[in-house]
Amino acid sequence: MERKKRKDKYLLRVTKVASLQVHDKPGHTLTLTEMEGEPIELTEGVAGEFVSRRSVTFHDRIKGSGPMQGYVQATFKHGAVQSRFEGHRDSTTKISAGTWKTYNGIGILANIKGGGTFKITPGNRRGEFILELEAEYEL
Fold first, then answer.
1. Residue 51: beta bridge partners?
2. Is the pLDDT of residue 110 over 90?
3. DSSP-derived secondary structure letter, 108
4. Which class would CATH give 3-138?
């Protein structure tokens, strides 16, 4: 199998959020966030046109900084890929960064294996973010 590389960029929008205070330290929160995304820059691959992107993320933050982990499904005309990610958010820069890895493929992407890095920066509006992905994968 040939390894391929790609870079994509998405606009993410928060669709649901629930946050709870932990009360052990000032500013400690646990948050569950659902986001949907649409491509800003996306190279069409073997699975065809983009259909949807949905992620669910768990954040454990103290005063805005801390670890995050979650799951995402990106759906295309001829298949979908499901990935797991983990990273960290810095409250000073408001940037989240980390790694991701595929765990399941559907349709033409059934045998996909891969992963990469991601960076999330604030968007222009409240509840919007810019996701930049780098990937290396094989089918």
1. none
2. yes
3. T
4. mainly beta
Q: What is the pLDDT of residues 67-90, one digit of tens each?
A: 999 999 999 999 999 999 999 999
Residue 102: CA atoms inside 13 Å, Cβ hemisphere, count? 20
Cα–Cα distance list, 75 to 82, 88, 115, 126 (Å): 9, 25, 16, 25
Q: Where are the domains of the chain?
A: 3-138
Q: How far apart are CA 120 and CA 133, in angstroms?
A: 9
List C-alpha distances in Å: 109 to 52, 57, 93, 104, 114. 15, 23, 35, 8, 11
pLDDT at 1 over 70: no
Q: Would you call 126 helix, strand, or coil by DSSP?
A: coil
Query: Which residue matches tokens 């408001």?
Result: 94
